[in-house]
Amino acid sequence: MSLVSLKEVLQDARRACYAVPMFDVSNAAMIRAAVEVAEEENSPVILAAIEPDLVGSMIEYWSAAARLAAFRSRVPVAIMLDHAATTGLCVRCADAGFSGVMLDASSRPFDENIAAVREVAGLMHRRGVSVEAELGHVGDAQAVGGEGELTGNAGAHNVYTDPASVAEFVERSGCDALAVSIGTAHGVYVTAPRLEIGLLREIDAVSPVPLVLHGGSGTPEDQLRNAIANGIAKINICSEVMHAWHKTMLDELAAAPNLSYWDVTACVKPEAAIREVMRAKIRLFGSNRK
């Protein structure tokens, strides 16, 4: 199928009431795993990088690996920049071959958020690249206290999306997809979230564009199914993938008689672990056999 835009990959998802998984993937093994699992499940997939993955020349290396996987794939693949803070990074990623960017100006006042997204949308649309924005603000699931202690609650610092502002925001900003705040949070939950499905239903009724749920990792499965049934067309998964990779790697290294063996060997079990996470999410989101 090759590379597709974010806008294109979400259109059918919204119409047919399933969600496309977006996996944050930091290296070539994760990229390959995501696309191969998607092929096995006959599912569209979105590969995403965050700014730390792309420092310096890594933007070219990461993009080359993702584009190779996309062009060899038998299923639709979108390549996305997740949570960009600047217009400049969006432009660099678009020029490197990404097919979608997410500009996160959600912590700014309403009009400033619109202006920032509108500027990026103008630059991206000329390049055939889709733009995701966020209205409301999805906060962090945890804060770090003394000696690494995890504190805080699910959804801390959230500002819920106001349905009355959605249509105006989309029209004025020119975004192609909208991340909404309905109770999830980024990171690892201290307590499980409870999503505001009634609020989501109101947002979906007025939104001209597909809706996105950030903070999908750790959200109870029944709530994710309910969110998809009520308008969510894309769900972001990062923490569960990273946890599976690093926990399995730690176990693998701890069991090794010494550490002077090939990295490719050390990565076999971590890669198998993230493949199972990805497969489970694809099936949960209903994007398999699509």
Description:
- The protein is an alpha/beta fold and 290 residues long.
- It has a single domain (6-285), classed as TIM Barrel (Alpha-Beta Barrel).
- Helices cover 46% and strands 16% of the residues.
- It has helices spanning 6-16, 28-41, 58-72, 87-95, 110-125, 163-173, 197-206, 221-229, 239-255, 263-266, 268-285, and strands spanning 20-24, 45-49, 77-84, 100-103, 130-135, 143-144, 150-151, 177-180, 211-213, 232-237.
- The strands form two sheets. An eight-stranded parallel β-barrel has the order 1-2-3-4-5-8-9-10, surrounded by ten helices. Strands 6-7 form a two-stranded antiparallel sheet.
- α2 runs parallel beside α3, α4 packs parallel to α5 (110-125) and α6 (163-173) packs across α7 (197-206).
- The chain starts with 5 loop residues before the first helix and ends in a 5-residue tail after the last helix.
- 49% of the residues are buried.
- Pfam families: F_bP_aldolase (PF01116).
- The active site is at residue 82.
Task: Estimate the helix proportion, in percent.
Answer: 40-55%
**Stretches where pLDDT falls below 50 for ≥5 residues?**
143-155
CATH domain fold name? TIM Barrel
CATH class: Alpha Beta
- Report the biggest beta sheet as strand number plus sense, adding barrel if it closes: 8 strands, parallel, barrel
Strand order of the largest sheet: 1-2-3-4-5-8-9-10
CATH architecture: Alpha-Beta Barrel
Proportion of beta-strand residues: 15-25%
Question: Helix count?
Answer: 11
Give the overall average pLDDT: 92
Number of domains: 1
- Ends apart, CA distance between termini: 13 Å
CATH superfamily: Aldolase class I
Order of helices and strands: HEHEHEHEHEEEHEHEHEHHH
Class computed from helices, strands and strand pairing: alpha/beta
| Shape descriptor | globular
Instruction: Kindly report the oligomeric state of this protein.
Output: single chain
| Number of separate strands | 10
Query: Over all CA atoms, what is the radius of gyration?
Result: 18 Å
GO molecular function: aldehyde-lyase activity; zinc ion binding
Binding site for Zn(2+) 1: 83, 186, 214
InterPro entries: Aldolase_TIM, Class_II_FBP_aldolase, FBA_II
Protein name: Fructose-bisphosphate aldolase class II
